[in-house]
Amino acid sequence: MANTAVVFKSNYGATRKYAMHIAHALEAELLDMDRVKKFDFAKYDTVIYGGGIYAGKVNGIKFISSNAENLAGKTVIIFTTGLADPTVAKNAKDILKSLNKSLPKELMSKVHIYNFQGGLDYSKLSFLHKRVMSMVKKSIEKKCEDERTDNEKGILESYGKNLDLTDMATASPLIDYVKGLK
Ligand SMILES: Cc1cc2nc3c(=O)[nH]c(=O)nc-3n(C[C@H](O)[C@H](O)[C@H](O)COP(=O)(O)O)c2cc1C
After folding, report:
1. What is the pLDDT of residues 17-76, one digit of tens each?
2. How far apart are CA 72 and CA 63, in angstroms?
3. Ligand 1 centre distance from Cα of residue 15 (Å)
């Protein structure tokens, strides 16, 4: 699908992996936000944007939020990757809330959102991200065990490890949706 672009921002590769898979399945153009200087909106009918979730926010979402005019009349799809399991209703709701805050109302009402599980390899984290995760761990540890959410328990269990929760099969609904567009 030549008129489809898959744009992504990925710090450690999880989002890139999904973006590559989706672009390949759709024969779409793959664009790394960190390398693209100017995005030619006129070239595409469908724009798919993917970013990891960092402290509740979608990485690089400004690409979508600040281009409402350029995206008018196009199909806009956002996919996120995160450690939290998006099949848990509360987690999906949190992502929706965050996107609601980031995106203008009109754009929000027309975007299609898909959430996937990502990964985290502690050995590859930047100094800053290591510190953030260490602070998150400490704040979870301060809570009584029965007050911790499943998500928080997961963060403690996986702390310091190389966690890959990516599953390309979960991207199929997104791919099928775009294939179904005329
Ligand atoms: C500092 C930091 C904060 C994070 N915050 C969240 C979060 O709020 N929710 C979540 O589900 N995952 C969170 N993650 C996990 C990332 O979203 C996950 O690893 C994602 O797949 C990374 O994608 P990328 O490597 O393509 O950037 C965080 C990771 C780091 C390092």
Report:
1. 999 999 999 999 999 999 998 999 999 999 999 999 999 999 999 999 999 999 999 999
2. 14
3. 10
* DSSP one-letter string for 63-132: HHHTTHHHHTTSEEEEEEEESS-TTSHHHHHHHHHHHHHHS-HHHHHH-EEEEEE-EEEGGG--HHHHHH
Residues flanking ligand 1, CB < 6 Å? 10-16, 52-56, 59, 81-84, 118-120, 125, 129, 132-133
Judge whether 72 and 41 are in contact, CB under 8 Å.
no
The band of 151, judged by pLDDT with boundaries at 50, 70 and 90, is: confident
Q: Which two tokens stand for residue 12?
A: 């450690």
Q: What are phi and psi of 27, to 5 degrees?
A: 50, 45
Tell me, what DSSP letter sits at residue 36? -
Position in ligand 1 atom list of the atom nearest CA 8: 26
Tell me: do 75 and 33 sit in the same domain: yes
Q: How many domains does the chain have?
A: 2
Same structural domain, 159 and 169:
no
| Nearest residue to 63 via CA among 148, 6, 17, 135 | 6
On whether both 131 and 89 belong to a single domain, the answer is: no
SS (H, E, C) 117-140: ECEEEHHHCCHHHHHHHHHHHHHH
